[in-house]
Amino acid sequence: MKQEISTNQHLERQPKxxxxxxxxxxxxxxxxFLAPSFILIVIFVxxxxxxxxxxxxxxxxTLVPDFSFAGLKNYIYLFNDYRFQADLRNTVFFxxxxxxxxxxxxxxxSTLIDQKLKGESFFRNIFLFPMAxxxxxxxxxxxxxxxxxxxFNQFLQVFGIQPKWYTDTxxxxxxxxxxxxxxxxxxxxxxxxxxxxQMTGFSLAMYLAGLRGIPEELREAARIDGASExxxxxxxxxxxxxxxxxxxxxxxxxxxxxxxxxxxxMTGSGANFVTDVPGVYMFETTFRGNYYANxxxxxxxxxxxxxxxxxxxxxxxxxxxN
Amino acid sequence: MKKLLSFLLLVVMVxxxxxxxxxxxxxxxxxxxxxxxxxxxxxxxxxxxSDEGNDEGGLVEIFxxxxxxxxxxxxxxxxxxxxxxxxxxxxxxxxxxxxxxxNAKAVLATRMQGxxxxxxxxxxxxxELNEGWVAAGKMQPITSFFEEQExxxxxxxxxxxxxxxxxxxxxxxxxxHRGNVIFYNMEVFEEHNIEVPTTFDEFFEVADQLxxxxxxxxxxxxxxxxxATQIFENILLGVxxxxxxxxxFSGDIPxxxxxxxxxxxxxxxxxxxxxxxxxxxxxxxxxxxxxNGDAAMxxxxxxxxxxxxxxxxxxxxxxxxxxxxxxTDGNFMVITDTFGLPDGIDNExxxxxxxxxxxxxxxxxxxxxxxxxIPARVDADPANYDEYGQDxxxxxxxxxxxxxLAHGSAAPEGYLTKVNQAVNIFVTQQDTDNFINTLVxxxxxxx
Lengths: 322, 447
Prior knowledge:
The complex is a heterodimer. Chain A is mainly alpha-helical. Chain A has two domains: 2-56; 82-321, MetI-like (MetI-like fold). Chain A has 14 helices and two strands. Chain A has helices spanning 2-13, 16-56, 73-80, 82-113, 120-128, 135-145, 152-156, 186-212, 216-224, 229-240, 242-257, 261-266, 278-287, 292-321; strands at residues 171-177, 180-185. Chain A has a two-stranded antiparallel ribbon with strand order 1-2. Residues 1-12 of chain A have low confidence and may be disordered. Chain B has two domains: 41-175 and 337-387, D-Maltodextrin-Binding Protein, domain 2 (3-Layer(aba) Sandwich), CATH 3.40.190; 181-334 and 399-446, Periplasmic binding protein-like II (D-Maltodextrin-Binding Protein, domain 2). Chain B has 17 helices and 13 strands. In chain B, helix 2 (71-85) links the parallel strand 1 and strand 2 (90-95). Chain B is globular. Chain B starts with a helix and ends in a 5-residue tail after the last helix. Chains A and B meet through helix 2 and helix 13 of A and helix 1, helix 3 and helix 16 of B.
């Protein structure tokens, strides 16, 4: 901020000829500082995305690189592949359940914590703590908690219920779609529980910050207008929190679409691929099966999936800037 | 302008620092290790050291996935032996952890693609070596080295075939594991008065009997599906016999052959006798079921024997017994770890020194008793091995050897990946036609 102000003053005082020189020097500095990271990102991020895209339309499906052009062969193979269809199904249901629950839990808990109760920071830390763990740790812990022969089931035995958790191979409300049964895989619920447990703290923190940013005057004004507490919540607070919800959705979406470590540590692909996701498939097919082109195609499809969420966000935020 | 200059200076300094850094690190690598300890596995980052081979006191980087109990001890003992015989050569133990080499293979593939091969690396004999690295032109033949060492008659012929392609030998087998074994809880067998089954019919009778008594007949942990693939390959071997089993993978017998269908049906029947939570267990968890007596039998490669006796403290032939997979007696499903000579390394002589130790009787008898495997050589001393090892060594010399599918010896990794996927689906869906179809389609990868 300070700099901006000082340059503005500069601009006003300097005659026109000098102004041109000053700007070019500033620009030069800016370019000099940006250039290294810009070049690195162009090569190591966008360059390799391009490279992956190129491999994904090649015939490189053994240890020996083969860059002959294969067209969309690898993509066609994937979309006909039982495992990949199952992966897409799992990703859809995982993403919906995960984002939905993280938002609901985060909003609910932050509203409760915002009631100015005693020991607020204690509860806040409790809920935030799981976020400090890595997904691998979460995966290992929940693998045992939700293992059908140990963990929760030992306790649930008292009530005579024995859910099979992530080993359940049933698909709820399934119908034939391609070669798979499309519906909610019961096993994915176990993974969702673990992921929500870990990431709720994040949305809680976001919403809490948002709630703290709402001035008391707004609520007062609504109360004076005769709004009930529920109406205030519904008509005043939630609309103000919309940008936060958008951020939470974007961040959670890119986590859930690219998820790998949690699944890998907790359930693996699962019987009949009920808990498999594109990330795990990509790793296994590329580095175990040496299907480099197929693996690259999966990577590109994952990139496009994330882009569905990110691109509209980037466009709207650019509009906001203008 | 001043700012710009200072910035440029900064850039120059950073570059210079980076250059210095790489200098010092390569200095460290060539200087002999001060601490006389066995090489630290945490120093795995010290890669790309093979360039320094021409210096006095060469360096051999040994790449493996032997980080578990037993196998790591074996490797370290082997390295000790080598360093005693060749004090001028330093060994860099570049082991990457992860069961069955899942992580190590990914790291290896990346390094090989980047033309930065380790001095020598662990690879299963069979197609993983021959159709993988040899076909990719990344290995050097060592036939003359074998002749120099007079090894041609020290390893079984079938085994030498497994590490050869087009008449040239490409690697030195160090150990042998057997895949077609069933381990069983002796107490459970005694309690229910059960004889060891030798045919598929007897096996299913026994399984029925156990199930009625409330014991899980067969323990399975297929969180990683190769464990189920292992059962399938044993049934395939039992139904087809060793010759036709080989013919199946060389493409002379199609995968929709009647006998393959029969094997799939037997496989289906078998997996109906496994524990319900198989998908949440790995093979060690499954072995525990047998150890506790909750399940009676476990089909697993005989590294499970090491798990039973070392980790679970069970006594061979008292607590647990073993028998060949039904109808595969006289055959030996081989899983062999081998080390070869990669192309593009410049410390060939040092690596050959290491391979010479690896293939010697002394080397094999140092490594294998600790690892819990048997030596690949036929002239090793049985006195160094326990009861199970001696039994297996005898079987090894008297049996027909068959390459394991589940461990990448019978077929290339690409085919194995697809078979594992098909097995994973089959275990749940039990759709024979679908399974056979997938096998036939994937067989296109076998050429």
